[in-house]
Every structure is written in C-alpha cells, then in structure tokens.
Amino acid sequence: MSNRQKNVRLGIAAATAIALIAALILVSACREDTLENAPVEVYSPFGLYSPGTLGTLPTSASRMMIDALGFNSIEQYQDYSLNLTRELGVSWVRMDFYFDGWKFIEQPAYLAQLHAQDVEVVGCVLPMNSFAPEDLTTFRANLDHLVRRYPWIKIWQIGNEPDLSWDNPDDYPRFFFAGREEVLKNCPDCKIALAGAGARWPGQDMESWRHSLDVYDRIIGDIAARSPGNTKPFDIIDMHFYDFYGTDERMLETMKDYQSLLPRHGLSPEISFWVSECATPTGSLSWPPNAPSQTEEQQAAELVSRFVTMLGAHVDRVSWARFYENYRYEDIEDGFFDHNGLVYNGLGSEAGAGITAGTKKLGFYAYQTLISQLAGCSQVIRLDDGKYRFSFPDDRDPVYVLWSAGGTEPPAEVRGPILVTDVEGNSVETTGEQLTLGSMPVFVNKR
Questions:
Q1: In b/e form, how buried is each residue of 153-176, taking b as 16+ CB within 10 angstroms?
Q2: What is the pTM of this model?
C-alpha cells in the first residue's frame, strides 16, 4: 500500500465441442456469481506481501523496529523474517522493486535466500514517485537488466495501485506496455500481472471505492483497446483488501465488480484473480476515525474466513500484508497499518501495554494452521455460507473449513467420527452430530 490517505475465467468431435462450450459457460457463470456452489480449482494459494522490507517507513521508525527486536542490521531483520516465512509455510511472496528514476532498488542477497528456500518470488516493478517518468528509456533499460538478473522470477507485476498513488492513473497503460514488453522480451514464458487495485482500504467511502473501480475500468478498457486480437494482454488481476472484521458481504460485492471488468472489455475468462495485499488490524487505532477496536480472535477469524471465502469465489492466490507490524506508517502512529501484522512490534501503545517485540498474535498461528491444513489442495467447493470443502489430488481425504455464517450446524455430509482442529492447531476427536459451529473457523477431517 502507498499514499492511503489520498483519497479491488460428427459424433465424438461434436460432443467434445459441446463439452468445451459448456465448460466456458460454466466459468463465465461462476465469474458472474461468485457465490455459486461450483468447484473452483486452486493451487499453492497462500503467500505474503513484502516480508522483511522496511522501505516504505521513515528511517527512524525502521531503526526503532530493528532495535526493538535486538538486531543490529537490516540483514538480521531479513533473516528473522525469512525464518518466520518458513515457519508459516507460505509458498510465495510478492516483493517490490522501486525505480528511483535511475535504477531499481534491489535486495539481491535476501532474494537469493528466498529462492534457495523454494519460496516463489513475484516481482513488482513500480516508480518511487507518484507518476511514471515521461521518458521511459532508462526504466526500460534497467528493467531489461533486472529480468535477466533474476531468471527464476517468472511472474512480474507492472506497477501498484495507480488508483490510489498516481497523480494521473490514466497514464498507467503507457507504463504497463513498456514494462510488459521488456519482461516478455527476456522471458517469453513469464506471466504478467496488472498493477494491484485498492479495492477496499480503511477510511474508504462509497465515492472513493467507486473511484478506484472506475479507474480500473478505464485502465483495462484502454489496455484492451490497444491490444486488438489479444484477449489476454495480462495474465493476472490483483485486488487489495484492507478492511475490518465481518465485512465478507462487502468484500464479495467488490470482487464481483472487479471480476465483471473482463467480459465488459472482451477479455479472456482465463485471466487469473489474485489478492496480493490483505489485512485487518488488532487493538485500538488512531486512524481511520471511529475505527472499531478489534481483538486477536477477530483478526484470526477474519484471516481464515476471508481467505477461504476468496478462494471459493475464484481468487487463485491470497496473501497477507507484511506479517510483522509496521511502525508510524505514513507518519501515523497507531494507525491501521501499524496494527495489521501478525507479529507485534512492541512499539507505541504496545510498549505501554507490556507487549514485547516479536510476540506472535493468534492470527499468525491461524495462518500457519490454514496453510498446513490446506497445503497441496487442488479444489474448493462452497457448500453454504461459512461451509467449504477442500479436495486434494492424491488419496488424502477432504478438509472442511467451517464457521457459523450459514448456521451453527455442520453440512449434512459431515457426520460420524471427525477430527476438529482449531486455528491454533489443537485437535480433538468428536462426531459431526456433536459439533456446533461458532464465529471462529475450524478445520474438520472425517475419520
């Protein structure tokens, strides 16, 4: 996120053709109604946004965060973040490469460590300022070298949140095509992601939400118009969701709006939808005004329910934003972005409450449990509100993720002996008939 306050798919031959057409109709229908109970294919979906980076914070705040953890350098902080990333078990991270007008700001040693740990890196290239350079020659030359320096990065995102952070978001397509050309010239098999959209963010009213959607409508329309005959000028749309507990309905409405942009501009339903930034905070906030105070339990419940709901609504990858808390993000102490991490930084109001830096929130364990329970899943089916079944390509039995959004009774197919695992990873044996669902999601395996 950046500049938040500056006001998101003859006989046998005929039968085969009919089947293909039916499949395309099904995909289109699912995209039009994200709540339709239809199987959704998923793969390695769980990630993190920018773990181990401090570039968006004031230098003094970054220093205080490192000091609070007892570290002497950014390298030690990166090692710490890498260990937490491995502990969570995420399969991918999005890392930003800022272009300062002359060169890209890189962290090659840290990127090499992520690669050595088999964590997939999605590279996002973006201008450091709130506009793209008028002359993109230097940008293109540096991006050419960047892509060749990291041949193992196979997904490149061109820009970030032009709806929120660009002075002139309508200039984004020019930047997009320049970046896309350089990436594909050096890596023809690379995937291209559109800049993330600020689909939902704290303090956003209906007017600003619609503004972001309108910006992306224009951007996608412009890119489609400049790509005649190509219904897939990019491979991925990225939406960002920063909101409070209990906002699933609003989130699904927003996703449906962004998903409708593809057919509107004649683009392929095979374009993938991601959410590379997502979070909700804990504690009391100084910003936005009148923000609700949220508990660790609410954050943990929201993390699991939000990610599961997204996956069931045709989002292919989901990522939590910066699992370690920021400090004085955008020079606002105790604001939304100082409290949406999964690990406390022990500064500000936390210091007064006696919370030490590095203390893990319940949300950290909830994400760890979510990943461990669903790692390797290949399909999710929404059975009802708050009731999802995840299947696996091998002989592993399905895992159900359940909470009380659609009622306190588990689905009819969850009967007899079961193993129930809570968000902290604690398991107990019971029966489906004895299970009563609550607001905190649980993971259920039939025995």
A1: bebbbbbbbbbbbbeebeebbebb
A2: 0.90
Q: Give the CA distances from residue 205 to residues 89, 95, 200, 202, 388, in Å, rounded to whole numbers and listed in that order.
A: 35, 29, 9, 9, 31
Distance from chain centroid for Cα 377:
17
Range with lowest mean pLDDT among 132-141, 142-151, 246-255, 286-295: 246-255
Cβ contact 249:34 at 8 Å: no
| Per-residue CA distances from 138 to 106, 129, 147, 397 (Å) | 16, 15, 14, 53
Q: How confident is the model at residue 333 (pLDDT cuts 50, 70, 90)?
A: very high
Q: Which region, left, alpha or beta, applies to residue 137 given φ > 0 means left and ψ of -120 to 50 means alpha? A: alpha
For residue 367, the SS3 value is helix
Q: What is the mean pLDDT of residues 354-364?
A: 97
Question: What is 97-140 written as a DSSP string?
Answer: EEE-SSSEE--HHHHHHHHHTT-EEEEEEEESSSS--SS-HHHH
